[in-house]
Automatic annotation (TrEMBL):
Belongs to the GPI family. It comes from Streptomyces roseirectus. Pfam families: PGI (PF00342). Catalyzes the reversible isomerization of glucose-6-phosphate to fructose-6-phosphate. Its main location: cytoplasm. The lineage of its organism: Bacteria, Bacillati, Actinomycetota, Actinomycetes, Kitasatosporales. It comes from the Bacteria. One of its GO terms (cellular component) is cytosol. This is Glucose-6-phosphate isomerase. The keyword Hydrolase does not apply. The active site is at 355 (proton donor), 386, 510. It is an enzyme of class 5 (isomerase). PANTHER family: GLUCOSE-6-PHOSPHATE ISOMERASE.
């Protein structure tokens, strides 16, 4: 098999690098071509994605598309949609797109159509969700379930927790939802301290069902439950369900596999909240809304699969990231939602992006000499404005950012609170404008600012942003947004020629934690422990005894 050319050896790469030697600022770009405000917009479903405030021209975009063409992004995309094993290090298909395929679709893995199984699990989830929502599913003592606690970590936590927050306005308000992930006992303690075990359902979410944090928390949750229910082991069946690919381990833990909602090894953890992992969300918003969300995902899947390069939103966003990260030297990417409900959106994207594209060897195992995934960070925009935006505006770093906002607020807000929405969005538009166009020294002087302050009050501008607008944040729109980012991450991984679907780096930490733990609890010798960590362990044990 012939090796893929190194990215940096491709003529298309070098053409981009050469092109970057003629930079133009955003004031100049808009003056020369005001039409870019309309032209640099891509629409998909309910999303209007404006990328006019980027440091690119038609030529930049053409060169980026050339790079996508020669790196065969669409070829890999098609292989993913066909169910080929593009996760090469784990020899697995990458088929989160099958989780939201319509009932009559045919998608094969190893010659078997997986779509009927996907819908079988969705139907089982729907029936269970309705039982919990209606009060038909009762706990061991006959009381209805009022509290749902999801125990999981990484993809088995961030997705449902993020989506629950995002769609809070659509949730059954009479139910309480909590998400426990941290093995720090305080997490579970705070989650259950005011709950009645008789009314509490635990959802243990773990693809592998071996993740130490989740199994430890689930074991402690079971003890808490049994303490509250006179130790009657039979209670577990009514208060514990599992979401996993590993029926054997679920049974070992003591959960009846009849109470297990299955998914498959071709669903990556960080791509899994639209699988059984979304059960807590489905209970919260109901099966119909969950299906609307899946339809939103599917809409963007189809767009990614079929739209031409110029109008392909994930491709465009992926390419812009390549331009900044690989050519202009940006190290990070800010995601700044102007929506309180999206407070966990960026944290979710951190796993999606950084666990996928935090790689430094290519698909052939060669070290890469180009930047791969950026540091993704951010919090809801208005709060960020009063914290770290100063650095984006006037610091020394290039930080491309996504600004996300909605035209209409959701939820039963009073008229007074609804009216605040324009102010929220005014902030989004103002920030995009200020970041892009800044304020020149002449403009500052014209305001009568004393000369010694002019430099301090001048804004260079040219801080690129994408503005993603939609009518409102509803289940379908959330699905559209997540699929958009999933495929953007895919595009970048394809260009960088890395495996975006494994996470070996995380595995090492897991193994080492297991090895070190006995030293903390019993002082046991850990063979081969390095001097620094051994000293830390000794200090910890001393402090622990105080
Ligand atoms: O963080 C590593 C990881 O393997 C993620 O990819 C995954 O989402 C998370 O751990 C949880 O894994 P599991 O669902 O198997 O408990």
């Amino acid at each position: 098999m012939s090796e893929t050319p190194l990215l940096t050896e491709r003529p298309e790469w070098n053409a981009l690098v050469a092109h970057s030697a003629e930079p133009a600022g955003l004031r100049e770009l808009f003056a020369a071509d005001p039409g870019r405000a309309e032209r640099y917009v891509v629409r998909v479903g309910d999303l209007r994605i404006d990328y006019s405030k980027h440091l690119v021209t038609d030529e930049t975009l053409r060169l980026l598309r050339e790079l996508a063409l020669v790196t065969d992004v669409f070829g890999l995309r098609d292989a993913m949609f066909r169910g080929e094993k593009i996760n090469i290090t784990e020899r697995r298909a990458v088929l989160h797109t099958a989780l939201r395929a319509p009932r009559d679709a045919v998608i094969e893995v190893d010659g078997e159509n997986v779509v009927p199984a996907v819908h079988g699990v969705l139907d089982k989830m729907a029936a269970f969700s309705e039982q919990v929502r209606s009060g038909e599913w009762v706990g061991h003592t006959g009381k209805r379930i009022r509290n749902v606690v999801n125990i999981g970590i990484g993809g088995s936590d961030l997705g449902p927790a993020m989506a629950y927050e995002a769609l809070r306005a659509f949730t059954a308000r009479e139910l309480t939802f909590r998400f426990v992930s941290n093995v720090d006992g305080s997490d579970l303690h705070e989650a259950v301290r005011d709950l009645d075990p008789e009314e509490t359902l635990f959802i243990v979410a773990s693809k592998t069902f071996t993740t130490i944090e989740t199994i430890t928390n689930a074991t402690s949750a079971r003890s808490w439950l049994l303490r509250g229910l006179d130790g009657d082991e039979k209670a577990v069946a009514k208060h514990f369900v599992a979401l996993s690919t590993n029926a054997e381990k679920v049974a070992d833990f003591g959960i009846d596999t009849a109470n297990m909602f299955e998914f498959w090894d071709w669903v990556g953890g960080r791509y899994s909240y639209d699988s059984a992992i979304g059960l807590s969300l489905m209970i919260a918003i109901g099966p119909d809304a969950f299906r609307e969300m899946l339809a939103g995902f599917h809409l963007v899947d189809e767009h990614f699969r079929t739209a031409p390069a110029e109008a392909n939103a994930p491709l465009v966003l992926g390419l812009l990231g390549v331009w900044y990260g690989n050519v202009l030297g940006a190290q990070s990417h800010a995601v700044l939602p102007y929506s309180h409900y999206l407070s966990k959106f960026t944290a979710y994207l951190q796993q999606l992006d950084m666990e996928s594209n935090g790689k430094s060897v290519d698909r052939e195992g060669r070290s890469v000499s180009w930047q791969t995934g950026p540091v993704v960070w951010g919090t809801p925009g208005t709060n960020g404005q009063h914290a770290y935006y100063q650095l984006i505006h006037q610091g020394t770093k290039l930080i491309p950012a996504d600004l996300l906002g909605f035209a209409r607020p959701v939820g039963e807000l009073s008229d007074e609170l609804k009216a605040q929405h324009d102010l929220l969005m005014a902030n989004l538009f103002a920030q995009g404008q200020a970041l892009a166009f800044g304020k020149t020294a002449e403009e500052v002087r014209a305001e009568g600012v004393p000369e010694e302050q002019v430099a301090h009050r001048t804004f260079k501008g040219d801080h690129p942003t994408t503005t993603i607008l939609a009518g409102e944040l509803n289940p379908s729109v959330l699905g559209q947004l997540i699929a958009l980012y999933e495929h953007k991450v895919f595009v970048q991984g394809a260009i960088w020629n890395i495996d975006s679907f494994d996470q070996w780096g995380v595995e090492l930490g897991k193994v080492l934690a297991k090895r070190v733990e006995p030293a903390l609890t019993t002082g046991a010798d850990v063979p081969g422990l390095d001097a620094s960590t051994a000293a830390l362990v000794a200090a910890y044990r001393e402090l622990k005894e105080v």
